Amino acid sequence: MNGTGAGTGATTEQMPEQTPEHAPQAAADAPAVFSVRNLWKVFGPKADRVPGSDLAALSAEELREQAGCTVAVRDVSFDVRQGEVFVVMGLSGSGKSTLVRCLTRLIEPTSGTIAIDGEDVCGMDKGALRDLRRHRAAMVFQHFGLLPHRSVLDNVAYGLEIQGVAKAERRAKAAEMVEKVGLAGMEDRRPGQLSGGQQQRVGLARALAADPEVLLFDEPFSALDPLIRRDMQEEVVRLHRDEGRTMVFITHDLSEALRLGDRIALMRDGRVVQCGTPEEIVGSPADDYVRDFVRDVPREQVLTVRRAMRPAAAGESEEGESLAPTTTVAEAIETVARTGTAARVVDGGRCVGVVDHRSLLGVVAGLDSSRKAAA
Predict the structure, then answer these.
(1) Helices 196-209 and 152-162 sit at what angle, rounded to 10 degrees?
(2) Residue 306 contacts residue 325 (beta carbons within 8 Å)
(3) What is the mean pLDDT of residues 67-92?
(4) pTM for the whole structure
(5) Rounded to whole angstroms, how far apart are CA atoms 355 and 33?
(6) Alpha-carbon distance 199 to 192, whole Å?
(7) Which candidate, 127, 140, 217, 278, has a CA 20 to 30 Å from the CA of 250?
(8) What is the pLDDT of residue 308?
(9) Greatest Cα pair distance in the chain
(10) Contact call for residues 134 and 158 (beta carbons, < 8 A)
(11) What is the arrangement of strands in the sheet containing 85-89, beginning at the earlier edge strand?
C-alpha cells in the first residue's frame, strides 16, 4: 500500500472530544514496563540471517524473491511507560499483531531485545514465560475464546483455576471483576446468552482477574458493532482512569487509537514510521504517509491550545477566561465564541499565552502546520 492509499484504510468517523474523564498521560519520565530494542520478526528459511545483513535493506518484494523470507516486524524500538495506554496501529499487514505477540513470546522474535521491568523476556525459560503470561501481562484477543458450557462467573475465574487458586477465592475475585466490567446480575448466564459486547466484557474481566501489570489488547473490538464498540472503548477509558493500569492496545482504527492512546506507534510494512502523542501524530506528521493517514481527522478535537496560543499583549495576561494547556481547540473555540474575547492559557498559575478566534481558526485550517514548516 502506498502513501496515497493510507487515507482509505483509516476510519474517518467523527473523533470523540477529549474529556476531563480521560486518564492523564503517563509522565515522560515514568519507568518503562516494556522496553523493546531493534526487534525483528522474519518468517521463512534461515530467517535469522536477515537482521544485520545486506538482506535487511531489501524491500519486502525483493526479500521474498531473493531469500524466500517475509519481514513482519522490522527493527522496531520503543518503551511502554508505567501507567500509559500505548497504542500500536496500522493497516492490515503492517505487523502490529505480530509485534504484540512477540512481547510475551507467543511468537518468537528473530532478533532484538524485549525486557519487562528490566528482565530479559527473550532469555526466559518455559516456567518464567508461563508466569509472565499468567500474572504479569494478560492478553485480550479479538476472538473471546469463552468456554460455552461454563457460566460467566466460571469463565472469568478460569485463569485463576489454571493457576491453582482455591475455588472460593477465585469465584469471589471473578464476581468482583464481573461487577467491574458492568455485568453484575449475569454471573450465571452462558456465553450463548450474551451479546457480542457482553462476551467481550467477559474476556476483559477474565484478563483483569489475574491482576496483571500490563493488559495487552489485540484488536479486541474490531468485530463489534459501532455502538457496542464505542461502549467498550469507554469501558477501557474508565478502567484506565480508575486503575491507571498499563495497557498496550493494537488497532487498525485511527479514531480508536486517538480516543484511547496516550501515545501511538503508527506502523507500515513492519516499521514504526512515527511514535508520539495523538497531538503529535495529527499536528506534526512525520512523512506523507502519516499525513495522508490523518488527513480526515477533525484537528480541533485532537490538538490543544498549546498549538494555537500566542504571546499575551499588554493587559491580556490578567483578563478573560482561563484555559488549561490541555484544553482542545474545539473547547477553546466554544469559550471564545461565548465570551467574545480572547482566553488566557494558564499553566501553574501563570499565563503562558492567549488564544483568540484568529489563532484557533488557524489551527483548524492547518495554518499552524504551514507556519512551522516555513520556520
Answers:
(1) 30
(2) yes
(3) 94
(4) 0.83
(5) 38
(6) 9
(7) 127
(8) 92
(9) 72
(10) no
(11) 137-141, 214-218, 246-251, 85-89, 263-268, 271-276
Is the CB of residue 63 less than 8 Å from the CB of residue 70?
yes
Q: What is the per-residue pLDDT for 25?
A: 53
Alpha carbon of residue 77 to chain centroid: 16
Report which residue type is found at 164.
G
In contact, 145 and 223? CB cutoff 8 Å: no
Helix (H) or strand (E) holding 257: helix 254-260
Non-local (6+) Cβ contacts of 205 within 8 A are: 156, 174, 177, 178, 180, 181, 183
The span from the CA of 98 to the CA of 356, in Å, is 46
The pLDDT tens digits of the residues spanning 115-161 come to 999 999 999 999 999 999 988 998 887 776 788 899 999 999 988 88
DSSP 310: B
Cell of 113: 531485545
Whether the CB-CB separation of 329 and 363 falls below 8 Å is answered with yes
CB atoms within 10 A of CB 148: 8
Residue 107's nearest CA partner among 88, 129, 92 is 129
**Residue 42 φ/ψ region, left for φ over 0, alpha for ψ in the -120 to 50 degree band, beta for the rest:** beta
Q: Please name the residues in contact with 153: beta carbons below 8 A apart, sequence gap of 6 or more.
A: 171, 174, 175, 178, 187, 188
Rounded Cα gap, residues 32 and 78, in angstroms: 10
Judged by DSSP in three states, 345 sits in strand
- CA 306 to chain centroid, in Å, comes to 23
The pLDDT tens digits for 249-301 are: 999 989 899 999 999 999 999 999 999 999 999 999 999 999 999 988 999 99
Condensed to tens digits (0 to 9), the pLDDT of residues 356-373 reads 999 999 998 887 754 454
How is 82-121 classified by DSSP, letter by letter?
TT-EEEEE-STTSSHHHHHHHHTTSS--SEEEEEETTEES
Contact status, residue 264 vs residue 277, Cβ threshold 8 Å: yes
- All 3 cell numbers of residue 292? 495522508
Alpha carbons 346 and 325: distance in angstroms, whole number:
7
Using an 8 Å Cβ cutoff, are 147 and 155 in contact? yes
Cβ proximity of 98 and 41 under 8 Å:
yes
